[in-house]
Amino acid sequence: MNWHDIPSLLALRAFEAAARHGSFSAAARDLNVTHAAIGQHVRALEDHFGLPLMQREGRGMAVTPDGRRLADSLGDAFGLIASASTDLLDQAKTRAIRVSITPSFAANWLMPRIGGFWDAHPDIEVELIPSMQLIDLRRDNIDVAIRYGDGNWTGVHSTPLLSAGHTAVAAPSYLKGCDTDCLADLKGSRWLLDGNRSEEKLWVAQNGVDLDEEDVTYFATGQLSREAALAGLGVTILPAPVASGHIASGALVKLCEEIDSAVAYHVLTRPEAVNPARDVFVKWLKSQTA
Amino acid sequence: MNWHDIPSLLALRAFEAAARHGSFSAAARDLNVTHAAIGQHVRALEDHFGLPLMQREGRGMAVTPDGRRLADSLGDAFGLIASASTDLLDQAKTRAIRVSITPSFAANWLMPRIGGFWDAHPDIEVELIPSMQLIDLRRDNIDVAIRYGDGNWTGVHSTPLLSAGHTAVAAPSYLKGCDTDCLADLKGSRWLLDGNRSEEKLWVAQNGVDLDEEDVTYFATGQLSREAALAGLGVTILPAPVASGHIASGALVKLCEEIDSAVAYHVLTRPEAVNPARDVFVKWLKSQTA
DNA sequence: TTCATATGATAGCTAGGCTAACATACAGAA
DNA sequence: TTCTGTATGTTAGCCTAGCTATCATATGAA
Asked: Could you tell me if A273 and B47 are in contact, meaning their C-beta atoms sit under 8 angstroms apart?
């Protein structure tokens, strides 16, 4: 396709609108520009083709036979473009929004609540994608990601969803009635920690417990350390939203909780991506923590 | 047609080229932009539609099924636009170029020569439009105008074609052998002048003849005054190119001629209008005065 | 004649489109 | 395995195509 002989697509669009309306002013209103812009485009096309396309007729403009032929072809072409665009937008509206969440957050916070979203929005399908890492929203085609941290990530828009201070918990069977007021009271316990979470070790150290002098077992994932605690094997540390579910069910007991934590669960999105359904879901997420 | 839901036409063009080539770099070469421009456009479209359109595949890019559907529609649409544009350009190439000339210039300078142009360029049709006034090239759909004056017109490109100093002439039958060296020698003659040409009166006055003391008849048009002179009724003043034809035929005798005149015949065009045939004709016009 | 609404013309503004430059990734040749 | 050519990814910053604002003239209805 030799684009050299084809004039400005914006000029062609302006001309097609002017020809369809028989008026520069009406075309301007249609395209949200001034009549001057339409006029300039049409003149430029007449210069490019070396033929008059429209001419004055009273207050409006009449299309010449040459102009009529061009306008008809352009109408067909832009009609195809409009149809293809609309079809794709409709298709995008029907696809599930892809949400990346950590497995623990999904199990303990989101799943218990997602039924409410489905009830309220049966027209919006949500595809939950468990993932442990911070992903690339664009490359991985993710609409929303929920991640635990300080929210200071580049390239995405992040808003805090809910606070997630560290919480020390253990199974009732492990505690056997032991009383605790602070982390230091837990000295001598068996610690079950996620080897990846240096923040947890820091929190414990900052609260009077030297982990180097404690009985600590490090697990490859937080899920494994959590399951070990649920089995009554010792004390573990969970983010508050994850812990709350287990505590409510009585499977774990809250021993000590971090107040005013800098870390939280955040909602990550790409604002340049237009997606109304994604926006509805994010709004619902935030309504669950109000 | 709701243009609000339709993304940038330039972005759609970039995407169609990338899809057709399976490569940002090849599309860039096709459209004479950088691969970065293509990449940005495709990403912007993916954000607009909320769907991936192309994805990495080794060194090139593969089109997704959604992208393929869009690309096919765009290919059809841009094909229509290309066809319509090319057809109109071809049509413009075949139409006659419209040349506006004054009747006297046509009769005395152009018509004796135009046969040479037709012989050299049988493929270019020239439509001669006699007109007395300076016209609006665009409004009147004129490709070339040839006009007499100082060339200082706004809104058009003018280049001098041939000098056109004033020339005093009379029929041999009127002169009856009278000898002249300058205009002053013509005192006492009957002057036949175009009432519209104040420049001619000025020239005569500047060369020693007070027309207020002469026998002067003013005509409504230059043609009438010229025909009166051809009939032997007196002395008239013509632009040199108009006079030269009559002098060569012996119908008129040159009495006195203006040297280094500021006025000339000029070729007027609109450079913003693209028209190769017009350019060929203008080039030929200038070759006739080299 | 007056008034509303059209197009014509153009100086000047601005943001969409692009480039330049540097990055990483892929694939084939040596 | 290494090197090289060529692909895409990213982004700061430039710039001109596209537009607006403004004032002009022209048209047609009241």
From this structure: yes
* CA-based nearest residue to A149, from A198, A78, A210: A198
Residues B11 and B30 in one domain: yes
Contact map slice: A 57-76 vs B, CB within 8 A: 66, 69-70, 73-74, 76
Q: What residue ranges in chain B does DSSP mark as E strands?
A: 54-57, 60-63, 97-101, 126-130, 144-149, 157-163, 166-170, 190-194, 215-219, 235-239, 253-257, 264-269
Residues B156 and B215 in one domain: no
pLDDT the model gives residue B261 = 80
Which structural domain, as residue segments, surrounds residue B55?
3-94
Q: Which of A51, A91, A275 sits opposite B88 (nearest CB)?
A: A51
DSSP state of B106: I
Q: Which residues of A139-158 are buried (b: 16+ CB within 10 A; e: fewer)?
A: eebbbbbbbbbebeeeebeb
The tens digit of pLDDT for each residue in B15-50 reads: 999 999 999 999 999 999 999 999 999 999 999 998
Residues in chain A with CB shorter than 8 Å from the CB of B87 are 69
Q: Give Cα separations from B151 to A94, A107, B242, B262, B289 (angstroms).
A: 67, 85, 18, 9, 17
For residue A290, the model assigns a pLDDT of 67
Under DSSP, is residue B87 helix (H, G, I), strand (E, B) or coil?
Answer: helix
Q: Write the pLDDT tens digit of every residue in A169-223.
A: 999 888 776 666 777 888 888 999 988 777 788 888 888 888 888 889 998 888 8
CATH number at residue B198: 3.40.190.10
d(CA A238, CA A169): 7
Nearest chain B CA: its distance from A81 CA (Å): 6
- Residue B116 host element (H or E): helix B111-120
Rounded CA gap, A14 and B56, in Å? 36
CA distance A147 to A265: 5
**Tens of pLDDT along A6-23?**
999 999 999 999 999 999
Instruction: Indicate the pLDDT class of residue A25, thresholds 50, 70 and 90.
Output: very high
A283 compared with B178, residue with greater pLDDT = A283
Q: How many domains does chain B have?
A: 3
Cβ-Cβ contacts under 8 Å between A and B: the total is 136
The ipTM estimated for the assembled molecules is 0.82
Q: Report chain A's mean pLDDT, rounded to a whole number.
A: 88
Q: Using a CB–CB cutoff of 8 Å, tell me whether A188 touches chain B.
A: no
Cα–Cα distance, A26 to A35 (Å, whole number) = 8
Question: How far, in whole angstroms, is CA A115 from its chain's centroid?
Answer: 20
Q: Measured between beta carbons, which residues in chain B are less than 8 angstroms from residue A275?
A: 50
Same domain, B114 and B185: no
CATH number for the domain spanning A15: value is 1.10.10.10
pLDDT < 70: residue spans in chain B: 134, 177-181, 290
Res B178: pLDDT: 67
What percent of chain A has pLDDT above 90? Answer: 43
First to last CA, chain A: 56
